[in-house]
DNA sequence: AGGATGACGTGCA
DNA sequence: TTGCACGCCATCC
């Protein structure tokens, strides 16, 4: 993934990077912000690509509409994702973000 | 060039 | 209320 290859994925990364610490957002929210409301899956796919990009994307701050850490298993270390969230003040229980409404970051 | 896929979301039974 | 099935659109094979 080259920097000049600005694509949908890059836009996702940029938005995800805007998420402040201690806050989380959903794939659908990001997708809508990009104009493709129904392409939430693309956002998830993009996050998966964040693996091989030089850009640092707080993928751990992005969860699904239910506050579930659906993608944690996809990361190098799923447990680390939860630890990162808790380190930012977000309570995670059973792959689920507690007080999701409070930490949710709307567009 | 075409077909299959996916870290989701919403609707319906 | 919980669970199942369909749709979506960019990316990958």
Automatic annotation (TrEMBL):
The keyword Transferase applies. Residues 8-90 form the Methylated-DNA-[protein]-cysteine S-methyltransferase DNA binding domain. The keyword Methyltransferase applies. It comes from the Bacteria. GO terms for biological process: DNA repair; methylation. Pfam families: DNA_binding_1. This is Cysteine methyltransferase. It comes from Pedobacter ginsengisoli.
């Amino acid at each position: 993934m080259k920097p000049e290859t600005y694509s949908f994925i890059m836009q996702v990364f940029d938005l995800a990077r805007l998420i402040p610490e201690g806050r989380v957002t959903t794939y659908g929210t990001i997708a809508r912000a990009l104009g493709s409301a129904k392409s939430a899956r693309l956002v998830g796919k993009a996050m998966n690509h964040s693996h091989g990009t030089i850009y640092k994307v707080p993928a751990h701050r992005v969860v699904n509409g239910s506050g579930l850490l659906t993608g944690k298993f996809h990361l190098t270390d799923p447990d680390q994702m939860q630890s990162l969230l808790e380190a930012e003040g977000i309570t995670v229980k059973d792959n689920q973000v507690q007080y999701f409404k409070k930490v949710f970051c709307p567009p």
